[in-house]
């Protein structure tokens, strides 16, 4: 599993995750000695494609390398937890938290959290709102019990933090938040360097600087797609040249 080296332009996020997640998971005795409770819930939010899911996977990889004991990583999308039948989502969440506690230290990553626990009263009308209200209540109870489950950290990710039920953003639940904004020019240069470091021959720093300067407003996912498109275009050009050389004059 990739570690911090897979992240470009997110050094501020890396430093926060080291403090909020790795330190409590690997050295819980420091917090117990000081009689303070480490963060148990962290909310990633920001623009689409800015690296929220990638950061969670890099965190899991970094924990696996730093810890003498394996750190379990559970990743779910909000929609994956919802089922066809009433009560299925609540059961899925309870089983997920129980399994994480059994394999602690563990990280639970819930992507697209707003689709799982939307603000009550805004999810729809009638039965739909009642179903989501039940899921939110279950999630609140599970988050309140995280401290009693051992070394388990819950990370949620969303592009719309305002759509999540407000009760989940109170202290003791998702009480720490990490914002993922669009990358600066320097950040874009770092992201481009990550995605092109294995190219043969590697692009010049002057070219990468020019691309970084010309891609204002691009998210990390956009830059990754740009690099992938460049590779495909290069392959197509090379194939065309080979075919052209092979034709009789």
Automatic annotation (TrEMBL):
Pfam family name, one: AAA
Ranges of residues in domain AAA+ ATPase: 38-184
One of the protein's GO biological processes: nucleosome assembly
GO MF assignments: ATP binding; ATP hydrolysis activity; chromatin binding; histone binding
SUPFAM superfamilies: P-loop containing nucleoside triphosphate hydrolases
Keywords annotated in UniProt: ATP-binding, Bromodomain, Nucleotide-binding
GO cellular component: nucleus
InterPro entries reported for this sequence: AAA+_ATPase, ATAD2-like, ATPase_AAA_core, ATPase_AAA_CS, P-loop_NTPase
UniProt record similarity statement: Belongs to the AAA ATPase family.
The protein, known as: AAA-domain-containing protein
Organism: Coccomyxa subellipsoidea (strain C-169) (Green microalga)
């Amino acid at each position: 599993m990739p570690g911090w080296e897979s992240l470009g332009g997110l050094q501020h996020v890396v430093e926060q995750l080291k403090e909020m997640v790795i330190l409590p998971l690997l050295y819980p005795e420091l917090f117990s000695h000081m009689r303070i409770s480490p963060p148990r819930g962290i909310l990633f939010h920001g623009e689409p494609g800015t690296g929220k899911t990638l950061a969670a996977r890099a965190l899991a990889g970094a924990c696996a390398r730093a810890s003498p004991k394996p750190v379990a990583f559970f990743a779910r999308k909000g929609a994956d937890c919802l089922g066809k039948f009433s009560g299925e989502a609540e059961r899925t969440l309870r089983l997920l938290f129980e399994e994480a506690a059994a394999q602690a230290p563990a990280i639970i990553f819930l992507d697209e959290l707003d689709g799982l626990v939307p603000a009550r009263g805004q999810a729809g009308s009638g039965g739909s709102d009642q179903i989501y209200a039940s899921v939110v209540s279950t999630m609140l109870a599970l988050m309140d019990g995280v401290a009693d489950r051992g070394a388990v950290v819950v990370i949620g990710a969303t592009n719309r933090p305002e759509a999540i039920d407000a009760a989940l953003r109170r202290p003791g639940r998702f009480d720490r938040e990490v914002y993922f904004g669009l990358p600066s020019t320097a950040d874009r240069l770092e992201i481009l360097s990550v995605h092109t470091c294995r190219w043969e021959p590697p692009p010049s720093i002057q070219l990468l600087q020019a691309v970084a300067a010309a891609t204002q407003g691009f998210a990390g996912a956009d830059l990754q797609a740009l690099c992938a498109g460049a590779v495909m275009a290069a392959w197509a050009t090379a194939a065309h040249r080979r075919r052209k050389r092979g034709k009789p004059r």
